[in-house]
DEAD/DEAH box helicase family protein (Paracoccus marinaquae), 693 residues
Amino acid sequence: PTNTIRIQTAEALKNPRHPYRQVLDAAFEGRVRVFDIGDFTQVTPHDLRSNLCVVVGTIQTLRVSNTDGRKVYAHHEMLEGHFSTVSPNTPGLERNDDGPMKGDIRFSFANLMHLHRPLVIMDEAHKAGTSLSQDVYERINPSALIEFTATPKGFNNILHSVTAQELKDEEMIKMPVVLDEAETWQGAVNSAILKRAELQEHADRDREGYIRPIVLFQAQKKGEEVTVDVLKQHLIDNENIDPAKIAVATGAQRDLDGIDLFKPDCPIEYVITIEALKEGWDCSFAYVFCSLANIRSSTDAEQLLGRVLRMPYAKKRKEPALNKSYAKLVSKHFSEAAVSLRDKLVDMGFEESEAEANIEAEQPGLDDGLFGRQSRPRATMTVELDASEEERREINIVAPGKIKVSAGDDGKTRIEFTGVPKPKDEERLFQMAPARLHGVLREKLAEFKARHADDLAPAHLGEEFTVPRLMAHVQGELVFGDTDILMEYHDWSLADHPARLTKAEFDIVETTNTFEIDLDGNRLSISAADSSEQLSLDIDVDDWTTNSLVRWLDGKVRDQWIGQAELLAWLSDVVTHLTRDRDMPLSQLMRCKFILARKLNEKIRGFRQMERDKVYQMNLFGPEARVEVSFDDGIRFFDEMYFDVPKYRGIYKFKHHFMGPDEVPTFDSKDGGEEVKCALALDALPKLKYWTR
């Protein structure tokens, strides 16, 4: 759709070390040539005979109602060799309109494509549904058209979809999104800078690939308060950011052109733009999005998601903070922004409960009002001290977001805790604050805790407790009675399970113009366009052999706990059973191999579940089971043990939870569901002191 994406794609495909190119080289034994569409005259007849030829272009190059003056539709003598053996009566080709060759076949790139019937792969396919786009396809005569889009339209024929939850499961995107609001744009900028610095510390400790977290600032348009120039000057003058670390990416100013943001020696840590970044901007180091405009619309939320979600190296990091993306907003309508963001996640394929679970609030107080929760007052502790400006700056580094440090009109320093200060916060505060201020700080903290004793959860006061854990004696060792751990001591083999698919599980029935695949009683019917295109499922094709099907299935039916040799033997038995014992033609299986692979994956998962059920029963309830409970190996409950777990966002305020009312982990059921009702019943018990799940 854009030149930016065209250039990126062409460069990736030309790079022998890029995964895109490596896949093509493996499939075509290195016989691959990649061309930018502007270089189409370099394509030779030999290239087309001997190599996979990939031409990367934009739809705009081809999508014109009048082809005059367009290079791809023009006559080029350099392409004459491609047409030397083409019959002058070949239909469907454009002809020269004038000159000595009037009426002859035009030696154009469009005609060359028409002759060879290319496979066309279209990105952003929702933009290619006009009648003019259809005209383009008729001109180039593709053998097939494969479309990719994140937002399919009614005219897109969806064959396969991937949800955002699947992307998260595959470790391709940074989730959840941590939302944070500020009342002033300066506050949002400061918060974004601090978050980037915090993430940089995590990145420095992470040894699994270089990461330099980047902040994307969305400035306001000309004529408004926070323009690109105002924001950049603020970063330099007030936040002491080195200008070399700032890049501006707008229509008029293109500081990122020619810069590789992934290089370790690249200094860029902040990117300023106006309309977020256009399609094709790709930097997985982007972690923090800071918009200085009010974000309410779904479109704005989508811009946010598209820029900061991609996971570096498509691999989960050991540092939990590097697995999340962050949004800093200037808004007094935080709940509206969060609901809008939730709706966009639902549009992208999340279930509503999953969407809510993938949005977090940065600060304890900011989730009030999220998803219907009523706002409530929170205890606030304010301490006034005589401190210099330098001391004030040192204290401010402690816990941004939880502690607010400001200068009062009388020149005194005000330290304000929002919510209950925790032992960890207090410890950091005393580490950073000058020693001469420790006495008055302790006094103020003690007064505050005495005044708000009812608001302080045990976890906030540093209390801990241990729940004994169920253990089992397995092969002479005492291990946690968890099925995953018990399975580690359990040897089982795929060979112990039948390599059989019954007719009820998988069948193919051929009729005149259709064939039906029956999968567990659910039939998928595929029909030919008309009787002249009758589907033939039993015609043999070169290279379609039992071994090739088994090898293909081996690549699709993978299981991390099953060795390849064991899996290959089992798959070979499956295919032999289907072809020999059930008389199913190999060609039928080849045409339905994706569905067969899906069924076999389900089958293996079912075998594993049977083994799990067996090992659970045997080690915990069998005649020879030896179980006991252990405090030494118990589960310790402590403050912030649920720091990375989504929190309850319902309308009820729990009074007796061990972690406090704002840190109750989310339940498996929605508000009003069985788990929530159970928690409400516990919380209402008159003699209950505290509870936790």
About this structure: The chain has 21 helices and 20 strands. The two ends are 50 Å apart (CA to CA).
